[in-house]
């Protein structure tokens, strides 16, 4: 066999032309056995995700050449096949107690085996020997996976990279932000700027922190600072337009020119379009505003939501009813929780953040924002809802799921205030389960004029991909119909909830706040109407709006776009 044949196989492999590389390997092996070709075949099959086949080839190779690289390849195959014990046995035979790479592999395999103590031990050894950045990040990620956020932050702060490395400083800033210590997060972000002044996107991150903290003026300053470095930085323009949607004509013309000359159709381009739409709306140029809005939404759906269609939602809504019907037959009504969950739900942009902001001012209420726990629990434990191939779970399994949901949810809270709010809008999908499982819970359904609600959703760019239906008006219309049908289903099953209309809270907020408190068995307290003065962190798309007194300019806003959106006239 000639060396040029090996070189050709390697070239095809590097170009990811695995099929041709495999054909050439097998052609050579028909003429003569060659360990190097067998080794390459193992790697080709590994790259194609054929791990069992790769393992067979590497075992053949190891019979003739029992070397370190071959054994490592076998370890990687075993890891992909989740045969962690076998991989650990091989790694331990290396006798390389001071090799950071071997220690890291051991840590990964112990983690796969859920032996977290030994996993941590080996990650620590690898890092302490090498003290390099990659091993630090491995250890950091280990703690994050186990939700040991304090340990994750500590090891970053104690490292030699904490005050001079861009990536590590950014991770520290992010961890402080996730723990809602935004002052320390901004402190590190400002330190990054002092070391890396050209990183203009850091100004944007500081702006986001100030937005969450309710400090809109400071947030606007940093968003504008970001765009002063790069006028094409769309996401900062978008955030600035949400705080202050007024802009001078020459500035708007300049921004439109940037948009026209922007060369790549990417997420930044989408945000530029959304910012321009917001500025044009303030100038009452509604047809032009809608043009940029629709274009941005269309691009996002086409580019980032491939493979999704509204049919997925039809399937889900149908299946949630079937699962609940079985749940009803189990008579699985759990006892009261030690806490009183107040589930604030409804479609997005229906006033859920506003209602939670008002309740957060009450001395007996602990506001927790948009908790993902309920939805994540159903995703993890009720596969039937999300996978066409799954079969309907039986009564026994559903009963166990209900008990586990209550147990896991209660364990999340250790509070002095026993009334907690959970403002995840899409929990309306699980309303019947919530009312039955948490027998002492209270459910507030926020509703709004249909046309205003649909328009507001369409005008909002959500960070959460649970809102895939929000980027196309026809999808939105169909989703709204599914939502209405599900509410009828819950009512027919006598699931009680308190419905609060956005228009009512705007027109007579004191009266409806008192009514709401009566439903929650809470006494009225002064200052609830000044909810906008509460600077608690808010992590939803409404964090700017709820910092202002109640206003009515968003009521009947859909009429400005009646000509652009045909179904509004139906």
What does this structure look like?
The protein has 570 residues and is mainly alpha-helical. It is 60% helix and 4% strand. It contains 27 helices and 5 strands. The chain has helices at 3-14, 18-31, 35-47, 51-64, 68-80, 84-93, 100-112, 116-130, 133-145, 149-157, 166-178, 182-195, 201-213, 216-229, 234-243, 249-261, 267-282, 286-304, 311-329, 352-359, 373-381, 395-410, 431-437, 450-458, 473-492, 502-507, 509-519, and strands at residues 340-346, 365-367, 419-422, 442-447, 498-501. A 5-stranded parallel sheet has the order 2-3-1-4-5, with helices on both faces. Helix 24 (450-458) packs across helix 25 (473-492). The N and C termini lie far apart (76 Å). The relative contact order is 0.06. The mean pLDDT is 90.
Task: Provide a short characterization of the protein structure.
By secondary structure, the chain is mainly α.
What structural keywords apply?
single chain, 5 strands, 570 residues, mainly alpha, 5-stranded parallel β-sheet, 27 helices
Topology of helices and strands:
Elements: H1 3-14, H2 18-31, H3 35-47, H4 51-64, H5 68-80, H6 84-93, H7 100-112, H8 116-130, H9 133-145, H10 149-157, H11 166-178, H12 182-195, H13 201-213, H14 216-229, H15 234-243, H16 249-261, H17 267-282, H18 286-304, H19 311-329, E1 340-346, H20 352-359, E2 365-367, H21 373-381, H22 395-410, E3 419-422, H23 431-437, E4 442-447, H24 450-458, H25 473-492, E5 498-501, H26 502-507, H27 509-519
Parallel strand pairs: 1-3, 1-4, 2-3, 4-5
Helix pairs in contact: 1-2, 1-3, 2-3, 3-4, 4-5, 5-6, 6-7, 7-8, 8-9, 9-10, 10-11, 11-12, 12-13, 13-14, 14-15, 15-17, 16-17, 17-18, 19-25, 24-25
